[in-house]
């Protein structure tokens, strides 16, 4: 394991603890980490959970993830709109 992989693993552990405690920002951040690790289904699940909890960045990230998938552009647009309506950012 490289130094960078070790940092990501440790970060993932802390994000998981915070996500399990119901912290929407951690669900979003863990989703981003998992997405970069090649686990898009897990990332999408976490983005959806965080978005449902009101995290506008997760709404945006979910939209971005869906926009890259064929046949899901309409759903992506809905999430982009929700993120905008929620004020964007955190």
Commentary on this structure:
This is Sel1 repeat family protein. InterPro entries: TPR-like_helical_dom_sf. Pfam families: TPR_10. This protein has about 90 residues and is mainly alpha-helical. The protein has one domain: Serine Threonine Protein Phosphatase 5, Tetratricopeptide repeat, CATH 1.25.40. Helices cover about 75% and strands about 0% of the residues. The chain has 5 helices and no strands. Helix 1 packs antiparallel against helix 2, helix 2 packs antiparallel against helix 3 and helix 3 runs antiparallel to helix 4. The longest helix has 18 residues. The radius of gyration is 13 Å and the shape is globular. The mean pLDDT is about 90.
Instruction: Please tally the helical runs, counting DSSP H or I stretches of 4 or more residues.
Output: 5
Overall mean confidence score, pLDDT? 92
- What is the ordering of alpha helices and beta strands? HHHHH
Task: Write down the domain tally.
Answer: 1
Judged by helices, strands and strand pairing, the structural class is mainly alpha
Q: In one word, what is the shape? A: globular
Please provide the count of β strands.
0
CATH domain fold name: Serine Threonine Protein Phosphatase 5, Tetratricopeptide repeat
> Distance N terminus to C terminus?
33 Å
Which consecutive residue ranges, at least 5 long each, have pLDDT under 50? Answer: none
Q: How much β-strand is present in the residues?
A: under 5%
CATH architecture: Alpha Horseshoe
What proportion of the residues is helical, as a percent range? over 70%
Radius of gyration: 13 Å
Major sheet attributes? none
InterPro entries: TPR-like_helical_dom_sf (IPR011990)
Protein name: Sel1 repeat family protein
Organism: Trebonia kvetii
């Amino acid at each position: 394991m490289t130094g960078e992989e070790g940092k990501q693993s440790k970060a993932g552990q802390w994000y998981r603890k915070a996500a399990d405690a119901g912290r929407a920002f951690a669900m979003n951040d863990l989703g981003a980490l998992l997405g970069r690790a090649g686990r898009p289904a897990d990332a999408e699940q976490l983005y959806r959970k965080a978005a449902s909890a009101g995290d506008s960045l997760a709404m945006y990230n979910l939209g971005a993830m869906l926009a890259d998938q064929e046949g899901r552009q309409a759903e992506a647009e809905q999430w982009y709109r929700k993120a905008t309506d929620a004020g964007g950012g955190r």
